[in-house]
Amino acid sequence: MAEPVTAGSEDLVLAGLTKKYGDFAAVDALDLTVPSGSFFALLGPSGCGKTTTLRMVAGLEVPTAGTVTLAGEDITRLKPYRRPVNTVFQSYALFPHLTIRDNVAFGPRRKGVSKREAAAEVNRMLDLVELGEYAGRKPAQLSGGQQQRVALARALINHPQVLLLDEPLGALDLKLRRQMQLELKRIQIDVGLTFIHVTHDQEEAMTMADTVAVMNQGRIEQMGAPEELYDLPRTTFVANFLGRSNLVAGSVTGTAGEEVSVQLDGGTVTAPVERAATAEGKVWVGVRPEKVHLKPAGDPAGGRGNELRDAVVSDVSFAGVSTEYVVRLPSGQELMVFEQNHTSQRRLHSGDRVDLTWAPEHTFLLDAAQDASAGTQFDDE
Amino acid sequence: MAHVVPTEIPDAPPAPEQQRRGLAGYLLLTPGSLWLAVFFIVPTVSLVATSLYDPSGSLEFGYQMTGHVQNYPHAIAEYWDPIVRSLQYALIATVACMILGYPLAYAIAFKAGRYKTILLVAVIAPFFTSFLVRTLAWQYLLGDNEWVVTFLRWLPFTGAELQLINTPVAVVAGLTYNFLPFFVLPLYASLEKIDHRLLEAAGDLYASPFRGFLKVTLPLSMPGVVAGTLLTFIPAAGDYINDELLGSPKTRMVGNEIQSLFYAGDYPTASALSVALMVTIVLLVAVYVWRAGTDELV
What we know:
The complex is a heterodimer.
Chain A (H helix, E strand, L loop, with lengths): L11 E10 L2 E11 L4 E5 L6 H9 L6 E6 L2 E2 L10 E4 L11 H11 L4 H14 L15 H13 L5 E5 L7 H18 L2 E6 L2 H7 L2 E6 L2 E6 L1 H6 L4 H6 L4 E11 L2 E6 L2 E6 L9 E6 L5 E4 L9 E13 L3 E7 L5 E7 L12 E6 L5 E4 L14
Parallel strand pairs in A: 3-8, 3-9, 6-7, 7-8
Antiparallel strand pairs in A: 1-2, 1-4, 4-5, 9-10, 11-12, 11-14, 12-13, 14-20, 15-19, 16-17, 16-19, 17-18
Helix pairs in contact in A: 2-3, 2-4, 3-4
Chain B lengths: L3 H5 L5 H37 L20 H8 L1 H32 L4 H9 L6 H11 L5 H8 L13 H25 L3 H9 L4 H30 L2 H6 L7 H11 L2 H26 L6
C-alpha cells in the first residue's frame, strides 16, 4: 500500500511505522497514505493501535521504526509543537483555567499572532462551531457537546495541514453523537483540511469518512471507501467488524469463466471471480444478512441463484424496519437473515422450515485459514 | 381563579424537607463550633481584653481594665524593629521555600515515577522528630567548628571569620528548613491533580515545554502555591524557636519579644503586640489572596 512520495504531494504518508512496547508491537510496520483534503477514518477495536498511530503523527509518541512524511517533509522526529498538525483529544483537554476565547486563541498566540488579530480569528472560529455567545465562559460551564466543539475550534483555528481526531465523539450520548457526526463532516467540507478520525464505531466511520482503514492488531486489514469495504470485505475481521456477515465453510470446485463454484455442506454456490479473496482450496463463503432472502422450504419460485436448503428458523426478532431471523442449517450452523418489513410479506415463525437464497454477486469468498469469528467479539463497543 | 392555584402548590411541599436538612447541618457543625468557641474565640477575646488593661498593674496585684488603647502605639513603637524583621525573615524564608519547593514538588508530581511515595515520605519524615530537636540539630550543624562553616571558610572568596550561627542567615535558613514541607505538600497536591493531557494539548498547540509550563502548569498550580506560601509565611512570621536557637539579640523576632514580655509579666504590652501582629498578618494575607485571585483556593 505504500506509495512513493511524489514531489509536491500534500499527502500524509506513513511508511513502515512501528511502535513497540517491549515485545508487543502496538503498531506493526504500518504503511498508509492519506490523501490531502480527505476525511480519513482509522477504524478498529480498542487496543488495535489506531490511537498510537495518531499519536505518532501528532508527535506525542516516538516511533520505534518507520517514518511519517507530510507534504514531502519527513516529520518523524519533529517535536509536537513544531508540526503543522493539530489534535482534537478524546478528553477534549480544554484548559480549565482559561476562558473559551483564550482556549481557542492558545495556538495562534503561541505562534506569535497578536492579541487583536487572534481575537478576530477566534470569533470567526467560534461562529463556525456556533459557540460565539459562550466566548467568555470557562470550559466547566459548557456541556459535553459544547466542549467538544470548543476543542474542534481550538484545533481548526491553526489551519493545520492535518487535523487528528481521537475518538472525539466517544463521550457524547448517541443522539448528540449523530448530530456531531454531520456537523464534523460539514466543517471538514467547509475548511477542506485533511481529517484523520480515529474511532471504534464502525457506523461513525462509515457515515463520515471518504476512506476507511480498518485496523487490527497494529496492522491495516483493509482500506477503501465505506461502501466498498462493506460490500466486499477481504478478511474475516473486516467482514465481522464492519457490519455483520454470515461465513460458511466450503471448498472451491472450479472456476468457469467469471464464476467460482464452491461446494458447501448442503449445496453448491457461485461467486464472481473478482469477489474471491482466494479462488482455490478451502474458503469461507460470505454473505451479508440483509442480502439473504428466506422462502418456504422446497418452493422453487423466488430463488436468487445461490441456495441453502432445509434450514429451520430458530429465532425471530422484530426490529421495526426489518425482522432479524436466526436460521439453523442442517449442519447445525446458525446464520443471520435480515428481511425488510414489506407489508405484503408473510412473517415467519420459530420452527418454520425455510430455504435461504441470495444472488451470486452478493457472495464473497475469504481465505479459510482466517478465524471466522475474528472481529465479532467487539460487537458491544 | 383556578389558574392561580397550581402555581402555588409546587412551592409548598419542599419546606419541611429543607428544615430537616438545615437541622442536620447545625448538628454537624456543633462539635466544631464548640471547639472553636472554647479554644479560639474565648482566648482571642481574652487576648484583646488583656491588651487594653492598664499597663501599671502587675501579676501580683492584678490588672485594671481601663480600655488603655495607648498600649498599641506604645508596643508598636517600642517593637517596630522586631516586627519589621519578622516580616522580612518570613518573606525571605517563604521565597526560599518557593525556590526550593517548587522544583521539588514538580519533580515528585511529574518525574518521580515509582519513587513518588518514597519521596513524599521523605518530605514528611522530619515531622517524626520534634520541631525543637530538629532546630537544635541545626544549631549544631551551623556551629563554628562544624564542617559547613569549615568548608565555607576554606572557599577562596569567604573570610576566615565567616560565621553562620547567631546570624540572620541562620535564622532564615532554620525557618526555611522547618516550613519547607508546608510549602511542598499543598503544592504537590495541586500539581498532582493536573491532567497530563493538558500538557500534551499545549504541546500540540505549539507551546514548547517551557511555554506549556508557564501557560498551563504554573497557573493551574497557583492554588497550591498560594496555600503553600500562606502555610509558610504565617507561622514563620510568628515563630520564635528558630531565632531563640539560631539567632542573636540582633536578630530578635517579634515572637521572641512577645514571649519575653509574657515572662516578664507585662501582659498588656505582650497582648497588644500579639494582636497587632495578628492583624498585620491577616491584612497582608487578605491582600495577597485577593491579588492572587485564587477564588477556588478554599
